[in-house]
Amino acid sequence: MEKNLSFLILVIFVVQSRLYTPKKYSSIGYNCGGSYYLSITEFNVWPWPVQPGDDMKIQVVGVFNRAETVDYIATGQDLNHDQWIYNITDIGQTFSVNQIGTFNTSAQAGTASGCYNIQVTLKGPKPEDTYLACWSFSYELYNID
What we know:
Elements: H1 2-19, E1 25-26, E2 30-31, E3 38-46, E4 55-64, E5 68-79, E6 85-95, E7 100-108, E8 114-123, E9 131-141
Antiparallel strand pairs: 1-3, 2-9, 3-4, 4-7, 5-6, 5-8, 8-9
């Protein structure tokens, strides 16, 4: 009886832990580019859900399909499909084939009501400025005065 009770408590604990959603959201959005250079395996945004004015932390994790240098991350954001505003995060790091890369950047959440789109692009060195990977996601803010 005691073993059955212990097992039941363990099962309840495991089920509850799987139902808990932390303030970090994994794998939100979609791939907006090919995966020839870098295959994105994880994309995280926190806090989630986004609140007006939040400083969103964004993390991209991927495996390099070929040796490549990541020069910078361009993070673009628009409101209601209007003008894009970009933020640049310098990286300047070279990766080998099959190496895992973890990249961190941030974006300031909007403060006006509407639909926001964010596109995170990893770029190679200039002058080619090669698109190495791209990921997009959206969030909505309403009834903000």
